[in-house]
Amino acid sequence: MKHFQRKLIFKQLASCCIFILLSGSLSACSLLINLSYHSEPKVFDLYFEDFKSIYAYPREYTGKSEDCSPDELYKRYRPRVYKDMGDVALARILYLIQVECKDPHLGSYFPSDIDYAAQALLTEEQLLVLDNLVGYPSPFPDIYLDFSMEQRKENFRYGLIKNEFSPIKIGYIRVAHLIKELGGIVRLEGNRDWLSGIEDIIKHLNALEVESIIVDVRTAAGGSIDNGRYIAARFANTEGPYIKFSEKIAPDKFKDIYPAIIRPEGSHVFSEGKMILLTSFSTCSGGEMFTLAMRKRENLINIGYYYYDTRKKATAGCAGAILDKDLANGWNATFTSSQSYCLENCTPSGDANYLRQGILPDFGIDSPAWENIPAYQDINDPSYINRYDSALENALLLLGNAPLFDSVYDSISRHK
After folding, report:
1. Residues 6 or more apart from 61 whose CB is under 8 A from it?
2. Residue 142 — pLDDT band, cuts 50, 70, 90?
3. Model's pTM, two decimal places?
4. What is the DSSP letter of 219?
């Protein structure tokens, strides 16, 4: 989490610097750090103005035990905010709000020194809640692959499963994330040249005559729904809606926008063979929307982990869209700005609202050992890379045994 926060701060600073270089003006950046708005009560009040106007999940959508009502949170925490309380104390309170809401899209991001000091004031239980909002990405399974290649600056990595692990030719594709970065600025859509790498990969794997493909999105694969749909369309073999959105039009009032549609598209596709989609507790936001698009495909089984927590959710439960706001003192906050729902009963509680609950896989396995590796583990350490990958092993078992695959596929309720 700390690494993620530092990365976002870097992006903000880079965006600000690029603006200065292009415009020759300090006005935009000066506005962010206007000292007249810098007092702790003013920062807090303006934060809640955004929170109340943007946040898309009122109490009836979040449940009594995890209430995230901006009005009630403001009443509870405003008396604890006072002038000259200090940045660290204010940051701690914003963290406590995240702990209560447990919405992975709701976040506050600070300079690293304030971040470390504020987290030091939290209890172990509170830190555990923050760390468990989204899991750690899985390592890349190099030991299973005959070759490993990258496309478009690591948006994609792919390879061919070694013969010793499979009796048939199986391709493997890791989708790292669904965003485009340019000079520190996150671009969710824009120029899609970087996405065309998926067609190059499919063309290569088709030339190798693979019979099946494993798509791995066990990362914090946030980003645009359109980017995810672009990739999923290269594997689609049916057409239809896969997710529904509602936008906030007034306090506690919402309007259905549209169901997103997936359909086969692309010059180079893989629509005939069997597929496995790998998800985990790290599959978040745009990655979850991508998951729902892929799950519309026939002859696809979604394998995921039951993570070590009481809810045993498979994906992170980052529902809806996310809106980024600059705070008056130069900090940054994110808010869930719309609601999104499965078009199937996809959650542990058996409903369509996957906020916090996450999307259950078709085929769930226990969390593998490497899910509990600390975030500071060196990813180049062979003991990290060369670990037994239980999800991938199960994928290979199913793809290498057609009757078993068909039996599991036919048992999946969403296909009936």
Report:
1. 339, 353, 355
2. confident
3. 0.82
4. S
pLDDT at residue 9 greater than cutoff 80:
no
Mean pLDDT value of segment 199-215: 95
Per cent of the chain over pLDDT 70 is 76
Q: Which two tokens stand for residue 127?
A: 């830190």
User: Which residues are CB-neighbours of 83 under 8 A, at least 6 positions away?
Assistant: 39, 40, 41
Closest CA to 177 of 212, 151, 203: 151
Angle between helices 112-120 and 87-101 (to 10 degrees): 70
Helix (H, G, I), strand (E, B) or coil at 345: coil
- How do 107-109 and 185-187 pair as beta strands? unpaired
What domains, with CATH codes, occur in the chain? 2-131 (no CATH), 142-319+354-415 (3.90.226.10)
Residue 70 class from Cβ within 10 Å (0-12 exposed, 13-18 middle, 19+ buried)?
A: buried
What are the C-alpha distances in Å from 17 to residues 109, 113, 347, 390? 18, 21, 43, 44
